[in-house]
Design a protein that fits this description.
2 copies of one chain form a homodimer. Chain A is built from 11 helices and 2 strands; from the N terminus they run βαααααβαααααα. The first copy, chain A, has about 260 residues and is mostly helical. Chain A has a two-stranded parallel ribbon. Chains A and B meet through strand 1, helix 1, helix 6, helix 7 and helix 8 of A and strand 1, helix 1, helix 6, helix 7 and helix 8 of B. The structure holds a DNA duplex (30 and 30 nucleotides).
DNA sequence: CCCCTTCTCGTATGGCCTACGGAAACTATC
DNA sequence: GATAGTTTCCGTAGGCCATACGAGAAGGGG
């Protein structure tokens, strides 16, 4: 099941995301902490990378750090906040070019940088596909992403009310592809079977169940070999999506 | 966390998906069953619709049917198979036009039918967004979807190796949108708070954290009002994606 | 040496899936 | 009507999970 980010108290999670410590005015001190928030997040990310998000229980993260389970609750209000912190951490890890940083000139290549790094992020942290991002952690990583993608489409000449939709469409498509790849990798690990083997195993039973009459388009494409030598669907889809956005923008430029 | 479909033994799940009973040759009979597979699946879907997939435990499904928990294991090998059956059931529930059934003439409208019914499906069954479909149940519902989407792009004149990628890109984009909407609906239910309220609550803390210098494109678009009167991102994105596919196909047609 | 503050973490509760195996319910046969 | 054969029903038990609560430990400042 998907973990739901975005259920966390903003007054508590925002200072954590931006790593603002409490003012600590009189600093009365007390027992010194064994850990830091960063150490907890890093251990959780490492565990999730290795064993998946379901295996990233509070008990296992604590064990990896050599402390008792309940100690974690000193650093993080609950597991939900920990997941938010993990997510923004890896989002920021893409290190997308900020304002003033060097980037490709062509806007399509700029989108390419975003797509490549996002795919790499999901490959390194496939558990990310288990966390919905409809209410994302409002942290540095998430804001850097929005800034970068918006900056790539801002100069195209789109009308004002289409700039954000275009950026969101690009993000949605890129993320969908990266998530499918991540889910695939996790299944391969969990089952020891590749996607190709999985489909092959089912193809052997294909003729028992497949009704040619009800699926003429599939059958025709199959017989013509159209499933075998397919182009990469996400590369193709992103290319034509960008074509469509560019054509839309061109319609508003002076001819 | 996402539930992983596609981990199920094909020899057991395929007959269930297609509802082929064992031959029952000598039919020795025995104690008559209280339930059917369909009844179990229907109860599980109803429960998931109402309370979400996490709340759809074997114990709760059994309770809803008035039987002991372990009784369910007579009908389905495990919870994983039950989820597969639930998924194919609701996929088939879209009742997409099959070969010979009436459908819009224009291919864009045909895709529109697919998009609208898929969105409606995710609205009715938001738990679907928790199940990855990279190894989907090979059942009637899933095959009907592939057949329909492929049939809409088959007549465009695309080269053979781009027909399936185009169909997959459409599915990926439509599904990504529907899933975001579903996640949003689930969060609204779980928290009692709409997305707008959620963002508003965080906007109030915006100035404490947001650095204008690092986010010039966002800032400019915000000040110009580009976030307020935004067009629907998924409607816009699907339109330009189809534009891009059509333009690609036109490049192969005789001029 | 004591107080104050902070961090540490054992225990306990209520849930989850499902392996196992005995009891129950039905038909067919004698 | 008894018995055998077959199938379905389901209680129990074990090993996971998050986290509320509160007692005790470990520092600094006086």
């Amino acid at each position: 099941m998907t973990e739901f980010s975005g259920r966390t108290d903003p007054e508590r999670i925002l200072p954590l995301l931006w790593r603002h410590r409490a003012p600590a005015a009189g600093r009365p001190t007390g027992r010194p902490p064994k850990l830091t928030v960063d150490a907890v997040v890093a251990a959780a990310v490492a565990l999730a990378d290795a064993d998946g998000l379901a295996a990233t229980s509070m008990a296992k993260v604590a064990a990896r750090l050599g402390v008792g389970t309940m100690t974690l609750y000193t650093y993080v209000p609950s597991r939900a906040e920990l997941v938010d912190l993990m997510v923004d951490d890896v989002l920021a890890g893409r290190a997308l070019p900020g304002p003033g940083d060097p980037r490709p000139e062509n806007w399509r290549d700029q989108v390419g940088v975003y797509a490549d790094r996002t795919r790499a992020m999901y490959r390194a942290h496939p558990w990310l596909s288990q966390v919905t991002l409809v209410r994302p952690p409002i942290g540095p990583g998430m804001l850097a992403e929005r800034e970068y993608v918006l900056s790539t489409v801002s100069g195209l000449g789109l009308p004002l009310h289409r700039i954000n939709p275009a950026a969101l469409a690009i993000t949605a498509f890129v993320t969908a592809g990266a998530r499918q790849e991540a889910d695939s990798a996790q299944l391969r690990r969990a089952t020891g079977q590749s996607d190709d083997d999985w489909w092959l195993q089912r193809m052997q039973l294909w003729e028992d169940w497949f009704d040619v009459e009800r699926h003429p388009a599939m059958t025709e494409l199959w017989n013509a070999g159209g499933f075998h030598e397919s182009e990469d669907a996400f590369g193709y889809g992103l290319a034509v999506l960008l074509d469509g956005i560019a054509a839309d923008a061109a319609g508003f430029s002076p001819a």
